[in-house]
Amino acid sequence: MNGPEADFVFGRTQAERESVLLPELLALTEHHRANCEPYDRILSALDVPADRAADRIADLPWLPVRLFKHHDLASVPREEIFKTLTSSGTTGAEVSRIYLDKAAAGDQVRALSRTLQAVLGKQRLPMLMVDSSGLIKNRLSFSARGAGVLGMAGFGRNHAYALDAEERPDPDAIAKFLTAYGDKPFLIFGFTFMVWQYLYEVSVEHGFDLSNGILVHSGGWKKLADRAVDNTTFRARFAADTGLTRIHNYYGMVEQIGTVFVEGPEGDALYCPDFADIVVRDPETWAEQPVGTPGVIEVVSSLPRSYPGHVLLTEDLGVVHGIDDGHWPGKRFSVLGRLPRAEARGCSDTFSAPQDTPEPQGVRAA
Questions:
Q1: CA distance 363 to 366
Q2: How confident is the model over 74-95, as a mean pLDDT?
Q3: What is the pTM of this model?
Q4: Residue 199 needs a FRET pair 20 to 30 A away by CA distance; which of 220, 236, 258, 311 works?
């Protein structure tokens, strides 16, 4: 463990997690059955009786995440809906709609803050955004990528942007930021392929020293494979060529807003915060897969109260590497990619390069 924040947010062993989360999740299942008629009908059609007991988190009934693209699922009255979130997707693709009341919106902000403070610390540091400021200034075209940038911006101060208004690399802006703040700890945020192409490659070209940086990034690795870049290479090249070693990837989705699974300091795997868990299921039998066997990721969280999103089967493949044997307790896992034929989606896929700039290798932001 590293400090009180890590103890608090990443402190539960798997046995402790099961014992605390299971009754909370069972109560949430009944809460949503009583307050969301479509959810009750779904469970009834699956012959899941009310007040059904469960011995393990893996025994809980789950919803396919795709249902939120086709059904309005809310557990609060319409007049109490404070915010409606939509997932990102490819052009023409259906989007998920997630309904939050004021209490739920506050819960997700606090949970995200507690989780990220475990790796960022509580102090707001100067922050370099590997994106363009124009992304969040033009609210008429406010994208999911922009929402991600705006959400992360709250963890830092004295923001600078690594891309100019035309979304071209701006090495002068990076140099100015590093001159002002680079001699002490500072934060960096961006989507994975953009961090590689518009921070790593630019830093190597200009000899920038990022050794005091703390990078948080999100996204998969499929497109970066075209450049022979995986997570190990990403971390090693940043360390060798820029001095940046404090790197944390994270995995999350709008359908479970506020819950993110964060990469440990060694980059060995993703970890579950204390209020969440994952189950990896066999794609044919839906039984829980043993450690080391890939399958479909189910994400579990005690946060969702305004909609039935507490137990969701994703469209992502993953594998659990170990339990209670890593930097933090609980399951440590990796995301292996999208299921075959699952539609591409994600904040970073919305990036469009300028006409005269080589098209970036977009990846799905988890």
A1: 9
A2: 79
A3: 0.83
A4: 258
